[in-house]
Amino acid sequence: MKRINFYAAIALALATMVFIACNKDIEGRTDNIPSLSPSNIDLNAGTWKPVLLTSPSEFAVAAPGATTTPDYIAQVNEIKDWQANLTSEEKRIVKYWSAGAVLRWNEILRELVAKHNLPPYQNEDGTYPVPSAANPLAYPQFPFANPPYAARAYAYVAAAQYDALIAAWYYKTLYNRPAPYKVDSTLNVLIPKSDLPSYPSEDAVLAGAAAEMMKLLFPGDQDFIQQKVEEHKRSRIIAGANVRSDIEAGEALGKAVAQKFVTRARGDRAGAAVGNAALWQQMEDDCIAKGEIPWKSLETPKRPPMLPLFGKVKPFLFDSLTVIALRPGPPPSTSGDEMKAEVEEVYNQTSNPTREEIRIIHFWADGVGTYTPPGHWMAIAAEDFIKKDFSEVRWARNMALLAMAEMDAAIVCWDTKFYYFNPRPCQMNPKIKTLTGVPNFPSYISGHSTFSGAASRLLGHIIPERAAAYDAMAEEAAKSRFYGGIHYNKSDCGVGLVVGRNVGDYAIQRAKTDGAE
């Protein structure tokens, strides 16, 4: 590969960044995909293992009215009234949501993450304000959807949707009410027909669960979220997929299940992850006491570290003692020859990058204004899941496994970062000119590498024929942080991949025992 000089590399990087900044469409290549038409409706999913529910029947759903009653007939007529004068916008929303509700709500969540992935600007006195959930519309708006926060948001929404669908499938098979188009053959059906019972509506279940979680996580966006809920529900009636009682029962069930996850989220210790000035100083002092050079913020003015106590957040796939057990051994000593060699390797790399390396840096950058590294892996998974014709409940199960793996990878990674408090390469050698932004937290281990190791391992289990491709992506994502000059190659990136894969193995263990395989 032909080498280019440093200034040419910077020019190419800036051009790449401008292109990325102008290409913020979260839906991207999923705009024109066909309607979801699963090869297997997974009718037994009501027996799968949930995440928090004690049983699929924990929240009662009343038996539906018979399809011969005047009330049901009136609900079918409501569909016909809608269909008599469909607008182009109504046809658009049917097409949009029929691609798959898990897919669409994940895209919407990624859009919110990207919107809020903006670090606050400093106060006049050089301090930094902190977003407040109690006053989410004040500057800086709550939340700052940085990678750990984003990983947690993806996990709570996906896991709540999965549990809600397990309950929905249980009641679908219990009551076995057919879809309205099976009751009245004169209906104009705008989505693929299915043998899946329609009560309660799986789409309304997903909308109810997602909305409850997302309103907690993004309280300043409640109007936007509710607008999407109403659009989603309306699309199913317009399409002839559900009558109104299917929708109402589904939404109520989704909301009820979500409240279990809301309660968990309020007590998972994430609210205390920011820490305080005394804690930040203590971490620095502890590192010095070990005879090491401590990490420091390279921003001006000095910015507080990002979520130093996120490693204490309650994980989904294992307990807090396992977080400690998954913590790797220490990085090379900051005064040793091994560290000097790693710093020199970063300096040499950033002094003479190739065009291909610049491309890789910015493809995987996932910085400010993006849906973060966990969201990048959600997008990768979504594109591949589309091709597999999964049912909604299997989509939800797979997304929940991935999202929980990413959240738990963030927890283990942040525990490691702030336990060792290791400096960045450009702190060790100020001559290193990074080719992407320098994150405001310690170096060891690489977050990108940890996220990527966990995601690639789990996705390789879900789609085995793609395992080698996922591994290659993870290796490239990890390498991108070394290419960019913000991580050491062997210790940060190499060890991060190993730790991430270890987290991914816990997701695989759950997958093998959840009843879906």
Describe the structure.
The chain has helices at residues 6-21, 70-84, 88-98, 101-116, 147-175, 180-183, 202-217, 222-238, 244-266, 277-289, 320-326, 337-351, 355-363, 372-386, 392-420, 425-428, 447-462, 467-483, 489-513. Mean pLDDT is 94; it is low at 1-28. It is elongated. α3 (88-98) crosses α8. The longest helix has 29 residues, at 147-175. It contains 19 helices and no strands. It is mainly α. The protein folds into two domains: 6-24 and 272-513, Vanadium-containing Chloroperoxidase, domain 2 (Orthogonal Bundle), CATH 1.10.606; 44-266, Orthogonal Bundle (Vanadium-containing Chloroperoxidase, domain 2), CATH 1.10.606.20.
Describe the SSE topology.
Elements: H1 6-21, H2 70-84, H3 88-98, H4 101-116, H5 147-175, H6 180-183, H7 202-217, H8 222-238, H9 244-266, H10 277-289, H11 320-326, H12 337-351, H13 355-363, H14 372-386, H15 392-420, H16 425-428, H17 447-462, H18 467-483, H19 489-513
Pfam family, one: PAP2
Protein name: Phosphatase PAP2 family protein
Keywords: Signal
Using brief descriptors, characterize the structure shown:
517 residues; mainly alpha; Vanadium-containing Chloroperoxidase, domain 2; 2 domains; 19 helices; disordered N terminus; PAP2/HPO_sf; V-haloperoxidase; Phosphatase PAP2 family protein; PAP2/HPO; signal
